[in-house]
Amino acid sequence: MTTRILGSKPAFRAGLIGSGIQLSFSPALHETEGQALGLEYSYTLIDTDTLPEPELRSLVTEARKSGLSGLNITHPYKKAVIEHLDDLSPDARALGAVNTVVFERTSSRSAPTSSSTSACPRPAPQPRHSRHATGNRSSSPKGSAAPRPTSPPPTAS
């Protein structure tokens, strides 16, 4: 659901409901992807750890009333949110859990969770370097440590 038009770009607002999500990368990821798609996109964290008495039904209702297009749902609410939705996708029904809620004009429904709707290319994953894996505990640049031996050390006879 498009919430408004700013200039010539469709504008979307969405959010994430969960516990302990203040360090989530979701806002940056969603807003960057929206920008790449030519959208005005804002993504709000609704961290129940920061609320005095979080009540899931109220959070979902207020999110819809405030104009959000939808929500992502994370721990510990993926199962509990089901009773607050008007309709479930076959995937959500089979899994007994929801991670995506779409708000329509008069209803809320779970969206399929088994397929990606991303249209932005993703960069190839880069190898991770671990100081502990290489034995390098110095502050030298990544990749500067000598490689570890690949065969076991000889045994004494």
Describe this structure in words.
- By secondary structure, the protein is of the alpha/beta class.
- It has a domain at 4-110: Rossmann fold (3-Layer(aba) Sandwich).
- It is 20% helix and 20% strand.
- It contains four helices and six strands; from the N terminus they run E-E-H-E-H-E-H-E-E-H.
- It has helices spanning 26-36, 56-65, 90-95, 131-134; strands at residues 4-6, 9-18, 40-47, 70-73, 100-103, 108-110.
- Strands 1, 2, 3, 4, 5 and 6 form a six-stranded mixed sheet that branches.
- A hairpin with a 2-residue loop joins strand 1 and strand 2.
- The radius of gyration is 22 Å and the shape is globular.
- Mean pLDDT is 77; it is low at 1-5, 114-125 and 130-151.
**Oligomeric assembly:** single chain
User: What's the alpha carbon Rg, rounded to whole Å?
Assistant: 22 Å
CATH homology-level superfamily of the domain at 4-110: Leucine Dehydrogenase, chain A, domain 1
What's the overall geometry? globular
| CATH class annotation of the domain at 4-110 | Alpha Beta
Considering DSSP H and I runs of 4 or more, what fraction of the residues is helical? 10-25%
Question: Approximately what portion of the residues adopt beta-strand conformation?
Answer: 15-25%
Based on secondary structure, the structural category is alpha/beta
Count of beta strands: 6
Count of alpha/pi helices:
4
Q: What is the CATH architecture descriptor of the domain at 4-110? A: 3-Layer(aba) Sandwich
Return residue spans where pLDDT drops below 50 for at least 5 consecutive residues.
1-5, 114-125, 130-151
Instruction: Spell out the helices and strands N to C.
Output: EEHEHEHEEH
What is the terminal separation in angstroms? 74 Å
Major beta sheet summary: 6 strands, mixed
Task: Report the CATH topology name of the domain at 4-110.
Answer: Rossmann fold
Pathway: Metabolic intermediate biosynthesis; chorismate biosynthesis; chorismate from D-erythrose 4-phosphate and phosphoenolpyruvate: step 4/7
Biased composition (Low complexity): 108-121
Protein name: Shikimate dehydrogenase substrate binding N-terminal domain-containing protein
InterPro entries: Aminoacid_DH-like_N_sf, Shikimate_DH-bd_N, Shikimate_DH_fam
